[in-house]
Design a protein that fits this description.
The complex is a heterodimer. By secondary structure, chain A is of the alpha+beta class. In chain A, 38% of the residues lie in helices and 23% in strands. Chain A has an 8-stranded antiparallel sheet with strand order 13-12-9-10-11-14-21-19, sandwiched between helices. In chain A, strands 3-2-1-4-5 form a 5-stranded parallel sheet. Chain B is mainly beta. The chains are: A alpha+beta, B mainly beta. The interface between A and B is large, with 57 and 59 residues.
Chain lengths: 501, 166
């Protein structure tokens, strides 16, 4: 077994991976940018190395610097987390060539599946159904427009080199096509260092359902059931749950088999996720395979009682899968709420600043995977995900009640977050009822936003009276000689700025 | 002291009476005992008629409050301001419609215009990248660009004035 693992990531996922490493008796090495000197993953690690300035392109994406740290620290293996270098073929290859174990699939599998157009081509060779679209990245916009017209608008433009909704655009008509392609290309270039994009048919009323798979180096492949990921905004998942309220046992078995076949088709090794779109008639299509650990992996861990990071490490160490397909059972219901530093009431614009107060929920069946603390500065440099609240209970209704309770308990002061947005979703009757599709957010946006800002007279009075008391206190403290700028509240500074302006 | 708590869609009339550290609030819903204890700068534990709340006063915008997480934008008007409003005085700051500032902190990657360019409402002005997403900022009004305060490649704070359309 490995003695030391370098985690080439930051934020909640770095901490998540490090926790398992430490439980397995493995030392952990952190890398960090200048903006992250006191970030939670740095504090947690046994060793920590500065790898460059704040922008990711100069630090977390600099695989040369990361490899240098791996050599210096005599690391046995590198865990890439998700995002950053996790799906970078060249990085996986360089790591392997440096005689360090890459905790992830072989570079060849990343290449096939990481490149969405290659993945589509490869899947067309199997029995797994694929969404209609272009087979090559767009090189000629005119030609691509013809394909789009053939499969029919609306179409989706997607990044060939990445995921997470970045570089993705929905195009309603030929008129805005060229412009959207250019935008998507720029966005992909900036997010993944790869500007190639492709087109896919946009399915109506689709459900986004994915299967977790595990494959060892000895040809064993299993799936660990599905995650329902249809609650999205801007093509990014916000809430995931398992089991999916839309699947039945037959469909689950069919899709599970398709997921295993997908993994086999590219000689996959490690933990991976096969994403499907399921239309309202319960036809399913291969969407893409993510050749890494997913953000929402804890949902699967909660219902299957596994530690996917530990499985990844054991697989990378050459061990045989400890479980057979028949050993996998799903117990109870799990739901994950992603807590982003975003202002849900204003189109989810990123929110930055210092976390002035923090109360993380706990109690039975409540797990928080995060990397935040009071006083931590949320910078604009990285993904705005602060952490994930995952709740488990015996059945769906109890799990939703638990999640709602935990969200009510969750308090992050100083920045805007998606906590209350998640709460509004969980309370929504359509979500409660179950078989929602990916249009849930767009369809119910107005109601959700209304619920976010709805307040009773009681709440309004509480707000007004607290503001009154707050101002009275400020008056008192500004009258007092002992008050210094440092102890004065931000509110006073904000007022002064307003006056000077 | 008479106050009006204006929450946008409804305005509530209240009377605050300070009683030591506590407040007695009188409103349409009756009389309430109110106590706010500061637990962090800008964050209070409130007990009003034995009901418990956590209230955050958001620092950047003075009138943004959250009660048990629910965000509210309220205005607290005292008797003098209520009177001024009745006389037709707008206490609000003059809003400059043509002044475009950054709603988010980020990197300005592209500016499509030069000073003197004519722009139509809805026309893209510049691109901003924040948290890996590209945002296109459009002209809020039609007019001529009078001023561009930053350069491509510059990082800006939230609220920075970027372009002025006259």
């Amino acid at each position: 077994m490995f003695k030391k693992i370098l985690v080439a990531n930051r934020g909640e996922i770095a901490l998540r991976v490090m926790r398992t490493c430490r439980e397995m008796g493995i030392e952990v090495v952190a890398v960090f940018s200048e903006a992250d000197r006191t970030a939670p993953h740095v504090l947690f690690a046994d060793e920590a190395y500065l790898i460059g300035p704040a922008p990711a392109s100069e630090s977390y994406l600099r695989w040369d610097n990361i490899l240098e740290v791996a050599r210096r620290s005599q690391t046995d293996a590198i865990h890439p987390g998700y995002g950053f270098l996790s799906e970078n073929t060249e990085f996986a290859q360089q790591v392997t060539e440096a005689d360090i174990v890459f905790i992830g699939p072989p570079a060849e599998a990343i290449k096939t599946m990481g490149d969405k157009t290659m993945a589509r081509q490869s899947m067309l060779q199997t029995d797994v159904p694929v969404v209609p679209g272009t087979e090559e990245p767009i090189s000629d916009v005119e030609q691509a427009l013809k394909v789009a017209e053939d499969i029919g608008f609306p179409v989706l433009i997607k990044a060939a080199g990445g995921g997470g909704g970045k570089g993705m655009r929905i195009v309603e008509s030929a008129k805005t096509f060229a412009d959207s392609v250019a935008k998507a290309q720029r966005e992909s270039q900036s997010a993944f260092g790869d500007g190639r994009v492709y087109i896919e048919k946009y399915l109506e009323e689709p459900h986004h359902i994915e299967f977790q798979i595990l494959a060892d180096q000895h040809g064993h492949v299993i799936h660990l059931n599905e995650r329902e990921c249809s609650i999205q905004r801007r093509y990014q998942k916000v809430i995931e749950e398992s089991p999916s309220p839309f699947l039945n046992p037959e469909l689950r078995e069919q899709m599970g088999r398709a997921a295993v076949e997908t993994a086999r088709s590219c000689n996959y090794v490690g933990a991976g996720t096969v994403e499907f779109l399921v239309d309202k008639h319960k036809n399913f299509y291969f969407l893409e395979m993510n050749t890494r650990l997913q953000v929402e992996h804890p949902v699967t861990e909660m219902i299957t009682g596994t530690d996917l990071v530990a499985e990844q490490i054991r697989i990378a160490d050459g061990q045989v899968l400890s479980m057979k397909q028949t050993d996998i059972s799903s117990t109870g219901h799990a739901i994950e709420c992603r807590i982003y530093a975003e202002d849900a009431a204003h189109d989810f614009t990123p929110s930055t600043g210092k976390i002035s107060m923090l109360q993380i929920p706990d109690g039975t069946g409540t797990r928080f995977d995060g990397a935040i603390r009071q006083g931590l500065e949320i910078t604009p440099y990285y993904d705005p995900l602060l952490g994930k609240l995952v709740c488990w209970a015996e059945d769906r209704e109890s799990a939703l009640n638990r999640a709602e309770r935990a969200l009510r308990e969750f308090y992050i002061g100083g920045i805007e977050t998606t906590i209350q947005f998640c709460r509004a979703v969980i309370r929504h009757p359509v979500f409660r009822h179950g078989p929602y599709d990916t249009h849930f957010y767009a369809t119910h946006k107005v109601e959700l936003m209304e619920q976010l800002s709805r307040s009773s007279d009681e709440v309004q009075i509480v707000a007004g009276a607290t503001l009154f008391q707050h101002r009275e206190q400020l008056k008192l403290s500004s009258q007092s000689e002992s008050s210094t700028t440092a102890t004065r509240s931000n509110w006073v500074q904000a007022q002064q700025k307003r006056v000077r302006r | 002291m008479k106050y009006e708590i204006n929450g946008g869609d409804k305005a509530l009339q209240v009377d605050f009476q300070q009683l030591g550290d506590k407040l007695i609030i009188r409103s349409e819903s009756g009389e309430m005992g109110f106590e706010a204890v500061r637990i962090q700068p800008g964050i209070y534990s409130v007990i009003m008629n034995q009901r418990s709340f956590v209230v955050g006063i958001r620092s950047e915008v003075a009138l943004k409050v959250s009660v048990n997480g629910t965000p509210l934008v309220i205005e607290l008007l005292d008797a003098v301001h209520i009177h001024l409003r009745e006389l037709g005085w707008a206490a609000m700051e003059e809003v400059k419609a043509g002044l475009v500032s950054s709603q988010i902190p980020g990197l300005v990657t592209k500016i499509f215009h030069l000073v003197g360019d004519k722009v139509a409402e809805g026309e893209p002005l510049f691109l901003m990248e924040a948290m890996k997403m590209e945002n296109e900022i459009k002209a809020p009004v039609s007019g001529v660009i009078k001023k561009i305060s930053i350069k491509e490649g510059e990082t800006v704070e939230k609220g920075t004035n970027i372009i002025e359309i006259g």
